[in-house]
Amino acid sequence: MKLAEARVVVEGLIFAADRPLSAQEIAEIIGLDPPAVEALVEDIRSRYADGALTIRRVGGGFQLVTKPELSPWIEKLGRPVIHAPLSPAATEALAIIAYEQPVTKAEIEQIRGVRSDSALNSLLERGLICEVGRKEGPGRPILYGTTAKFLEHFGLASADELPLRSISE
Amino acid sequence: MKLAEARVVVEGLIFAADRPLSAQEIAEIIGLDPPAVEALVEDIRSRYADGALTIRRVGGGFQLVTKPELSPWIEKLGRPVIHAPLSPAATEALAIIAYEQPVTKAEIEQIRGVRSDSALNSLLERGLICEVGRKEGPGRPILYGTTAKFLEHFGLASADELPLRSISE
Amino acid sequence: MGYVVQLEVYQGPFDLLLDLIAKNEVDIWDIPIATITEQYLEYLYSLQEKDLAIAGEFLVMAATLIRLKSRLLLPQEQAVEEEEEEAEDPRRELVQQLLRYKFFKEVGEFLQERYLEASRYYTKGQSVALYDLAPIYTQPVGKLALEELREIYDHLLRELAKEPPVHTISPGISLQERMALVRLQLVGKPRVSFRALVKDNTPMEIVGTFLAILELVRLGEIRVAQNTLFGDIKIQPYALELEVNA
Asked: Domain range spanning residue B152?
């Protein structure tokens, strides 16, 4: 396959996928190596310069999205808001789960200093966290972890973009 | 708004909309008239010449899709599997189409008393109905009818074999 | 009667303490426990004066602070008894908890910001935009029977033929009373379903309860979720962890 053709296929795949596609996945489909895919994505992105779309890197994959400056126009479509902003309580709980996973509700509540049932429910409903197992011990409490959707929801390319843990602690 | 800017907004709207957008709807959002929108859509389409995407006209609106020649590649992403049964709304729309065909969306909505876009989309995706023509008159609205797949599912040789309506009405 | 409040903007006792430490511009490793305890209690008293209930976690922290204060006031004899062992600062554990909490609170704020930024990027609105890649429906029509289709159609036509029904509205109970009923149902429960709130199932009750829920959402007292079209509506108190029953 010629590079120009490969570029078009990569663009089509990223558009058509209903989830962010990783360079690895694309590479397997088109039979090139991941660095070549990365280069093609860069090429596509630069060709989008005077259009409405761009490709962002999120959750370890590529995703076709509209440029942020168009958001005031797109809001006029009245597309239902899938993700209302999370409450501070829920983001605190999510932060703890992201770093401490797998973690139980009791452990989260111990760090936050308050009950966290509704924060956890809200995160579960949005599919940002899920039950990943049970902890050994009395009551075998549920262990929570973050989902693939977590990074996508916050536009994070990978967990490395989360703030580093301070050393003082 | 300059035309170049309007073109970018139109592209963004078509991409982000959760339904095919008509020239009229786009025109209302950006404050141009429908023929100007049609011209912008043509411009976008021609700019897509050496890319993966194109704009097709479907159900009286515009929709961003991958070019048909890419389908062998895109199929490798896997077809989504949906287990959900028909929604009550879609079932109602199907009943109306079965008995009234050929019938327009407006006529279906008049009988149901509510908007029926997503019900029709769901039936189209399931292959139970299809576009069978256009009604003469203003706007030349699309006429819908049931498909061979529909007949097959209910073991009917033709739509004439549908159970007779009760006499009470 | 059960009464639900939210404690201003504080997410919990650690949040309140961190705010007091910041306001006093003191070193977190050298917290003036006497001053901070005093201010902490003052805050709780001010809530009481406003007739607001105080969550149990805030009271537990008050007790911890008072205990710390009394230990710091004790002469250092005990430390001497422990000989070589360095006398551990009794504040140490609290400070570690505070720092730990502070880190996650900041990550939470970072996530909030990232969310706002990320929400300006829109993804493709329709998933049907693929040629020859329609979803596979395992149940295209489900268990729908031909006879049902006819019944649905007949029913729709009968409804259409009917004169629009005239509804008379009786005064019934007020919106305020409906809201009070919904609040009452929520006391001590993580969530209730809309169906459970509507007992008599009369149109007045359904509409009245629905309006009460909308009003409570507007006031920020509850959150609602509906997972499927026409599905049941789940109602949760907002920020449950900060609520207590007076």
From this structure: 88-161
Instruction: Evaluate if residue B106 carries a pLDDT over 50.
Output: yes
- Per-residue pLDDT, A81: 61
Question: Residue B166 domain-assigned?
Answer: no
Residue A145, in any domain of the structure: yes
Interface pTM, i.e. ipTM: 0.69
Q: What is the rounded CA–CA span in Å between residue C184 and residue A37?
A: 58
A75: contact with C, CB 8 A cutoff: no
Of A85, A37, A26, A48, which is closest to residue B15 (Cα–Cα)? A48
Comparing B25-39, B155-169, C184-198, the range with the smallest average pLDDT is B155-169
Residues 6+ positions from B148 with CB-CB distance below 8 Å: none
Q: Is C121 on the interface with B (CB under 8 A)?
A: no
Mark which of B26, B50, B75 sits at the end of a domain.
Answer: B75
Other C-beta atoms closer than 10 Å to the C-beta of B9 total 23
Total Cβ atoms within 10 A of residue B41: 20
At residue C6, the pLDDT reads 46
Rounded to an integer, the average pLDDT of B7-28 is 93
Joined together, the tokens standing for residue C168 give 């008379």
Residue A120: its H or E element: helix A117-125
Same domain, A36 and A96: no
Q: Report yes or no: A29 at the C interface, CB cutoff 8 Å.
A: no
Return the H-helix or E-strand segment holding C182.
helix C175-186
User: Is residue C187 classed exposed, middle or buried when 0-12, 13-18 and 19+ CB atoms within 10 A define those classes?
Assistant: middle
Q: How far apart are CA B146 and CA B151, in angstroms?
A: 8
Partner A, chain B 26-85, Cβ-Cβ below 8 Å: 29-30, 47, 50-53, 64, 66-67, 70, 73-74, 76-77, 80
Q: Which helix (H) or strand (E) holds C197?
A: helix C194-197
Q: Residue C240 above 60 pLDDT?
A: no
CATH number where A21 lies: 1.10.10.10
Q: Are residues B47 and B15 in the same domain?
A: yes
* Tens digits of residue pLDDT in A93-126: 999 999 999 999 999 999 999 999 999 999 998 8
CA distance A140 to chain C (A): 21
Three-state secondary structure call for residue A94 = helix
Say yes or no for a CB contact (<8 Å) between A119 and C116: no
Q: How confident is the model at residue B20 (pLDDT cuts 50, 70, 90)?
A: confident
From B63, B55, B144, select the one nearest B99 (Cα to Cα). B144
Token duo for residue C241: 């962890």
Residues B60 and B107 in one domain: no
pLDDT in tens, B40-88: 999 999 999 999 999 988 767 898 989 988 888 888 887 667 778 888 8
CA dihedral C162, B120, C226, C165 (to 10 degrees): -10
Give me the half-sphere count of Cα atoms (radius 13 Å) on the Cβ side of residue A12: 30
Distances (CA, A) of A133 to A116, A141, A143, A149: 19, 9, 5, 18
Measure the CA–CA gap between A104 and A99, rounded to whole angstroms.
Answer: 13
How many structural domains are present in chain B? 2
- Is B159 touching C (CB cutoff 8 A)? no
